[in-house]
Specification:
About 40% of the residues lie in helices and about 15% in strands. By secondary structure, the protein is of the alpha/beta class. Strand 3 and strand 4 form a beta hairpin. The chain binds flavin mononucleotide.
């Protein structure tokens, strides 16, 4: 079994990366080989509208023809048993790099031929992890309405047809030292306490999601489910 995680944060050792590594540890615990890809290490663009994946004879379906660093990653995603995508929320949505990645993944797995539909044999499992500064009650409020953001981005994993779920990690710890940055809005002690109490729970939940979805994806892909 193979599990691949895509880190949509520019930071390689912070919240999103830690959550993804924990999901991969879960995947490893059930016997998977694992890989973590940092999107910000790759030289790539969003979809360039070449329509190679939509040519009339269907020969380009489920592949992206744009030759850059993302292309082989998209191919490995389509081979994996479990796929984990993580992004921080940046100004109310996923990061720009994450969105470019999702554009490519979603479009190559889409079709303008309603009869064909999406590739049905890719029964890998997938999880989307969102990390953010706001607290859950703010995220759920009408002012933010982040569930709309989760659903919108999650729906772009449509090339992956097995069990899929998303997980939101709130009130993340943003800097090593809050005293170095302007701050009139955070209660730092309150935030530290939250982080110490809740981030370990988020990591444990990510581990369990990683293990469960890898087991499910592996079984579905090998025809055992
Ligand atoms: C450019 C930028 C924009 C951000 N915008 C938001 C936002 O709109 N809502 C929010 O809750 N957090 C926002 N944050 C905070 C991050 O989402 C949060 O700290 C996240 O956990 C960072 O992930 P990382 O630690 O993996 O880099 C923003 C951070 C940056 C740098």
């Amino acid at each position: 079994m193979k599990a691949i995680a895509i880190n949509g944060s520019p930071r390689k050792n912070w919240n999103t990366a830690k959550i993804l590594l924990s999901a991969l540890d879960g995947a490893k615990s059930v016997g998977a080989e694992t890989e973590l890809v940092h999107l910000y290490d790759l030289n790539f663009k969003g979809c360039v509208s070449c329509f190679s994946c939509m040519v009339a004879d269907g020969s380009g379906m489920w592949h992206c023809a744009l030759k850059d660093d993302l292309q082989p990653v998209l191919e490995r995603i389509m081979q994996a048993d479990a796929v984990f995508v993580g992004s921080p929320i940046y100004v109310g949505n996923v990061t720009g790099e994450t969105r470019c990645f999702l554009e490519r993944l979603a479009f190559m797995n889409g079709t303008y031929d309603g009869a064909l539909g999406p590739k049905s044999e890719n029964r890998a499992s997938a999880a989307f992890f969102f990390t953010m500064n706001v607290r859950e009650e703010q995220a759920m409020s009408d002012d933010f309405d982040y569930p709309r953001v989760y659903e919108d981005n999650f729906s772009l994993l449509r090339g992956i047809d097995g069990t899929k779920e998303y997980y939101a990690c709130y009130n993340t710890w943003q800097f090593d030292d809050y005293s170095k940055y302007m701050n009139k809005i955070f209660d730092i002690e309150d935030k530290r306490k939250w982080h110490e109490e809740h981030f370990p729970i988020d990591l444990k939940n990510a581990f369990e999601i990683g293990a469960r979805l890898t087991r499910l994806g592996g079984a579905a892909k090998s025809g055992r489910a």
